[in-house]
Specification:
260 residues, alpha+beta, Translation Initiation Factor IF3, Alpha-Beta Plaits
Length: 260
C-alpha cells in the first residue's frame, strides 16, 4: 500500500511599517500557541512521523524613545578679532596683540587657559576698484571659549569685548550638558516602555501575544547642543543677557520581541 501523506505546511510572513515600527512574523501552518508541532504522517508502513520544525522564530521589531530635560551646565562662546592694516605684517602684529589681550582678559575673568582654543586664523588682501591693486590687508582670529559656569557667560563676553576693542566679534553661543550619562537612566526606562507599548499594539492587531525580549540596541547619537544666535559685532561694553533654557536629552533604541 502506498504511503498516506497528510501534510499541512503553511507559512506566514508579514511586515508592517507604521512610523518607526517594523513587524515580522514567521510560523508553520497550524503551529502556534506552544502546542505540539505539525508532523508529516508517513503512514503505518514507512516509519515514525516526522515533525515539521519552524525555520525561524516569530518576532516583532520596533523602536522606542525616551527623553529627560536638564538645565545646561556648559557653554561654548565663539569670539573673534578683526583688524585692517596697510600691510600683512602690520595686520598680523595687531591681531596677535589683540589676541594676547583677549586671552589675558578671559583668564582674569576666571576662564582656564585650557578652555581657550584658537579655532581660526586668516589673513587676506583687499583690492581697489580695478581688482588688482592691493589697498590693504585684513586679519582675523577666532577662539572658542568653554564657560563652565552658565551664570558667567554674560560677564565673560563683556570682559572679552573690552579687551578686544573695535574689531571684537561674537560668532555664537552653544549650550550643552557635561555628563549626560548621569541623568539618562530614566530616559532608557521610558524608551523601553515606549517600545513595548508599540509592540503590544502590533501583537494584538495580529492576534498574537507578546513574548520575551530577543534583543535591545541603543542608537548612537551625539550629546545635544542648544545654539543661541549672537550679533556678529558688539558696539558697546555691556554684559549681554544670556538665557540657556533647557536641553532635552533623548535615547532611541531598537527592540525585538518574540511573539507567541
Amino acid at each position: 500500500m502506498s504511503a498516506r501523506w497528510n501534510v499541512i505546511i503553511g507559512g506566514l510572513a508579514a511586515a508592517t511599517a507604521i512610523g518607526v515600527g517594523t513587524v515580522a512574523f514567521a510560523g508553520n501552518g497550524d503551529v502556534d500557541c506552544g502546542c505540539a508541532p505539525a508532523v508529516v504522517d508517513t503512514g503505518p508502513d514507512t516509519g515514525p512521523d516526522v515533525p515539521i520544525v519552524p525555520s525561524t522564530e516569530g518576532t516583532i521589531s520596533v523602536s522606542g524613545t525616551g527623553s529627560v530635560s536638564v538645565d545646561p551646565d556648559t557653554a561654548v562662546v565663539n569670539l573673534g578679532i578683526q583688524v585692517t592694516a596697510a600691510t600683512g605684517a602690520e595686520a598680523m602684529a595687531q591681531v596677535n596683540g589683540d589676541a594676547t589681550a583677549l586671552t589675558e582678559a578671559l583668564v582674569a575673568a576666571g576662564i582656564a587657559e585650557e578652555d581657550i582654543q584658537t579655532s581660526g586664523l586668516s589673513l587676506y588682501s583687499t583690492t581697489g576698484d580695478d581688482g588688482v591693486t592691493v589697498t590693504g590687508y585684513n586679519a582675523s582670529l577666532t577662539v572658542n571659549v568653554t564657560v563652565r559656569d552658565i551664570e558667567s557667560v554674560g560677564p565673560t563676553i563683556d570682559a572679552a569685548q573690552q579687551a578686544g576693542g573695535e574689531g571684537f566679534t561674537i560668532g555664537g553661543v552653544s549650550f550643552s550638558f557635561a555628563d549626560p550619562e548621569s541623568v539618562l537612566e530614566q530616559a532608557r526606562i521610558d524608551a523601553l516602555a515606549n517600545a513595548r507599548a508599540k509592540a503590544e499594539q502590533y501583537a494584538a492587531a495580529a492576534g498574537l501575544e507578546l513574548g520575551a525580549i530577543v534583543s535591545i540596541s541603543e542608537m548612537t547619537s551625539s550629546p545635544p547642543i542648544l545654539y543661541a544666535a549672537a550679533d556678529m559685532a558688539v558696539a558697546e561694553s555691556a554684559g549681554p543677557p544670556i538665557s540657556a533654557g533647557q536641553l532635552d536629552l533623548t535615547i532611541e533604541i531598537a527592540v525585538t520581541f518574540a511573539v507567541i
